[in-house]
Amino acid sequence: MWLIVPVILVALAIFVFKYVFSSPGPNPFETDTRGPLKKMVHDMKEKNKVLKQGFVASKVPDNLDAIIIGSGIGGLGLGVLLAKVGKKVLVLEQHDRAGGCCHTFTEKGFEFDVGIHYIGELMDHTPSRCMLDQMTNGQLQWEPLENPFDQVVLGPPENQRRYPIYSGKTRFLEELKKCFPGEEKAIDEYLKLAKKAGDGIWLLALLKLLPSPVAKFLVYTGLAKRLSFFFKMAPRSLTEVVNELTENKDLRAVFTYIFGTYGNIPKDASFSMHSLLVTHFLNGAWYPKGGASEIAYHMIPIIEKAGGAVLVRAPVNRILFNGSQEAIGVSVMKGQEEVHIHAPMVISNAGIFNTYQKLLPKELQALPAIQKQLSMMKHGEGGLSVFVGLNGTKEELGLKADNYWIFAENNFDELMVNYMNGDREESAKKVPLVFVASASAKDPTWEERSPGKSTLTVVTFAKYAWFEEWKDDKVKNRGPEYKELKQAFIDSILKMTMEVFPKITRDKIEYIDAGTPISNNHYLGAMKGEIYGADHGIDRFCPELYATVRPQTPLKNLYLTGQDMFLCGFTGAIAGALTCGSVILNRNLHLDTIVLAKKTKRMNDKLKGDYELLAEVGVGCYGKVYKAKEVGDRQRLLAVKKFSIRGEDSESGVPASMIREVALLRKMEDLNHPNVVKLLDASAVPVGTSLDLTLVLEYIDQDLLTYLSKVPATGLSRERVKDLMRQLLQGLDFLHTNLVLHRDLKPENILVSNHGEVKIADFGLARMHTFNMALTPGVVTLWYRAPEVLLNSAYMSSVDMWSAGCIFAELFLLKPLFQGYTEVQQLQKIFEVIGLPSEKDWPKDTPVPYSPSWGPKGSSTKLLPNLGPDENDLLSQCLAFRPSGRISAIKALSHPFFARHPKSSVE
Ligand SMILES: Cc1cc2nc3c(=O)[nH]c(=O)nc-3n(C[C@H](O)[C@H](O)[C@H](O)COP(=O)(O)OP(=O)(O)OC[C@H]3O[C@@H](n4cnc5c(N)ncnc54)[C@H](O)[C@@H]3O)c2cc1C
């Protein structure tokens, strides 16, 4: 008997391990989809074309794979994950714009955020950051807040104490210790406990992902609590834990101040939930550059690219089921009409209460499994936000990229209980807590978008019941009593704010209004005006709840995503999307984000050790080119090229041809010639069926195309042409001697340094693709292509000599010699100059038949009338039709052109 327990435990451990690490489904993070940064769009009318696409039945795509109800980050995030593996998804939003809590609105020219003020864990290469970069194709940028990122203000103006909260583990501790001398032990212990509890969050995800019987086994045997300090600490209240640490009331308050980010006062808050927030901001806080609307703006196109759509003014009034209790679609209210849309899968981001209590038919609502889940959750607290539009810049108004948590005193439990349980008119006059944030001060694009203006958003808690009587009135027209109550809140909130920000005076206010819990109901679909969805008090963190409320609901084909599925906050809601996506796609996406982060970090560390990236200088179809500087004594300038190359065959991984190309690039590292760009490092990391390639090269700031564009109309001197051409041929001879064919020689791939040195670039990559470092138009030109390549015949190193001949002519003409736009036209242009070859010279292996109609007969040794005999002779030898008759680089270098220099008629 005593053997059975360890055997079961080992079997369970093996099962869990296998389950977690086996990921048979498609991976949305398989390829790095970050593209070059596009110019930011500030024009709200333009952005609204993406964010405000109104619902009409004709815009619903056919053959949907899934319908998502709600366009919060939990809905859009999941939509992107599914779209990235090719699924066609329809996201339906009840409000008139997409984004949920991430939406923004504009009043009197002031743009306000609703539910995004700061987000943690977005340092480079964290799983969160890498995931968001992929989910926005690298377009969403994050701006760090100041350090200190939060300021805690306690007490009335006559006895106000301010405590700055710094990020960085060491700084956080050091600065707190400066404020509270003698409390060092308590401060160290607090962070130690918070980190230990916060680190246990992995089990939360696991309980939702493991097969239900396994998750329940972990819960009911008590293993979940034993395995994770998070669940061990979860039943302990925040007040209880901090009271054990210190007697200092201000320090207790500073330990607990951030409860406002999840909405439970310290005596009701779980220490574990609190610890997640403390660790979330331990490495800093970030704000989306360009405002919160950027989030949805960059996600929607990814959903659309896969054939899906994000439609607003689309309130779902019920979920449709077949006779077997399987979700088969949704019904959307269009005016008084119901529009039915069908899909094999319905996912709700509308919150657990909306989904189960409003969108299910009564008989399914009554199912015991549904009732059980509902009985485990309760509504969270309501929120009230005051939006202030100000005249003045951030400097004039004393605003910074940080947040203020202002409390009437340090006894938070007492203050909040009195306030929330008090008479509403009295409570309105004595708001005990406000959170103050200025989006305009955080966003570096603000000054450009709204010069001379600023915004403030001030948030506090408020009971839904205080406002419920007006819930059915028309929005913005709820009558004088509602207005009066709102005004009372605005006045007391404003007073508290102005006491801390003396430069903000009433005369600076151009716009002010408040959103109450019933506004949250209207605009965010929050059933009871909740600020963070379902309640996050101690009961939420019993392991049984996590093993019971899971993405897969008791009803087939119906899933839940977003904050109620995991935790509140931007990161919590997106974790809900990852959890739901993991279930739908049958792979552990949490793990995938960790792998993605490790991979990106590995690549960057490799580079960072030796180089510092300075600026992006070019883009190509497969990646980016950066200007970089060598770290250390030499400080050489470098070009760093990053590519992600997709495999041809998803079954067989990275194709052998690519491996050969990379091997060639590695060989090039050992080759050293003054006329070939030095490849300093080439690294290739296979990622699934793709290859992430990084090349580090010496940096040369212009290519031959740019160089020629600056030459005066009188042209280049003969000596200069000779010098350029000699260097080019020397480089080519070196490549050919080392059995390297360039195959894509053209002015864009030949670099000319400021000292006139010529360097051949982009060798070895030609077969994979072309990649122009200079910002030339993205056409792959035919103009330098040898006839045997155009005729699809066998070729050798002489193809490079043909291109060299074309470039030689261009050095005189300052324009390309043969400018065809199709392969046929290109051949015709060539034959117009060199004459049509005889039929016996026509390649035998070409699929293109010989025809006298291709061009005029005969070969010419005087190809360009304005060139002298030496130039024309060298040119005609480079442009010989038969590859075997074409001059080699080494022979060309001994051509009389380089020895003699009669005057050219072009000069
Ligand atoms: C005032 C405030 C400040 C906040 N500040 C921060 C912060 O600084 N940092 C942070 O990380 N988090 C913050 N949060 C929390 C964070 O914004 C949310 O936890 C998170 O964005 C929730 O995302 P979600 O996708 O789960 O839900 P939501 O964003 O609420 O999305 C749900 C969507 O479903 C729609 N919907 C509901 N019912 C229907 C229906 N029947 N048909 C169609 N659509 C429907 C809603 O309209 C809504 O758009 C804040 C929240 C608020 C309210």
TrEMBL record:
Domain annotation Protein kinase: ranges: 611-898
Localization per record: Endoplasmic reticulum membrane
Catalytic activity: L-threonyl-[protein] + ATP = O-phospho-L-threonyl-[protein] + ADP + H(+); L-seryl-[protein] + ATP = O-phospho-L-seryl-[protein] + ADP + H(+); all-trans-13,14-dihydroretinol + A = all-trans-retinol + AH2
GO cellular component: endoplasmic reticulum membrane
Cofactor(s) this protein cannot do without: NAD(+); FAD; NADP(+)
A Pfam family: NAD_binding_8
Protein name: All-trans-retinol 13,14-reductase
Origin: domain of life: Eukaryota
Known EC number: 1.3.99.23, 2.7.11.22, 2.7.11.24
Residues annotated as binding ATP: 642
Coiled coil: none
Keywords: ATP-binding, Endoplasmic reticulum, FAD, Flavoprotein, Kinase, Lipid metabolism, Membrane, NAD, NADP, Nucleotide-binding, Oxidoreductase, Serine/threonine-protein kinase, Signal, Transferase
Lineage: Eukaryota, Metazoa, Chordata, Craniata, Vertebrata
Membrane topology: Peripheral membrane protein
UniProt signal peptide: 1-22
GO molecular function terms attached to this record: all-trans-retinol 13,14-reductase activity; ATP binding; cyclin-dependent protein serine/threonine kinase activity; MAP kinase activity
Native organism: Stegastes partitus (bicolor damselfish)
Gene giving rise to this polypeptide: retsat.2
Record family assignment: Belongs to the protein kinase superfamily. CMGC Ser/Thr protein kinase family. MAP kinase subfamily. Belongs to the protein kinase superfamily. CMGC Ser/Thr protein kinase family. CDC2/CDKX subfamily.
